[in-house]
Amino acid sequence: MGLGLLFGIPSLLICLMPQVAQAHHVMEGGSFTNGLSYPIHGLDHLLAIVAVGLWAALNDGRRRLGIFAGFNGALLIGAALGMARLGFPLVEQGILLSIVAIGLLIAVTFQGAAWLLAGLATLFAVFHGYAGGAEMPAENGAIIYSLGYLVCTLLLQGGGLAFGIFLCRQEKLPVVRAIGAAVCVIGVLLMVGVIHP
Question: Which of 111, 144, 124 is nearest to 49 (CA)?
């Protein structure tokens, strides 16, 4: 219950912030608020970040830590690359493929070695980070923007983690798998353009 309140309520409030429907908006500056709001402005980022938390809930100890450390570390590295406007190929495709992959990992309740899970999480996150960094105007404020970006990401992941732990403790693993399958399907629909981020 405590974990759910700690992460669930802030995560819900972030999701209800204004302008959620805008996907991939253009930043007006490198402020904490812009960084905080970025992950909720596109279905693709929002879905992937919450799903990472749910995926982490299916693991424990070093594997869970590996998922979080790999994803959030690569998110910041990717954001730095994006802010530097360095060329990075197939960003949108990588983002959408990550959603499909994370959904599939949840659906099959994949549990591998900690280094493997961290590596997968790192691969997924660098695309999301790059997109976030590339959409920020080239000006001062990169550090505070990145901090907001990370805070929002951690809250959303924490909400997914708390929800996943709750379902697992209630022995609702089939529900978790079904959610993973739904995430995977939404990722495919995003890839083929049936729905838009």
Answer: 124
C-beta neighbour count of 66 within 10 angstroms:
23
Assigned domain for 65 exists:
yes
CA atoms within 13 A on the CB side of 7: 22
User: Is the residue at 11 inside a domain?
Assistant: no
Helix/strand/coil (H, E, C) string of 48-89? HHHHHHHHHHCCCHHHHHHHHHHHHHHHHHHHHHHHCCCCCC
DSSP 38: G
Predicted TM-score of the model (pTM): 0.82
State the residue range of the domain holding 166.
29-177
For residue range 62-102, list pLDDT tens digits in order. 999 999 999 999 988 998 888 888 778 889 999 999 999 99
Alpha carbon dihedral 113, 116, 117, 120, in 10-degree steps, equals -170
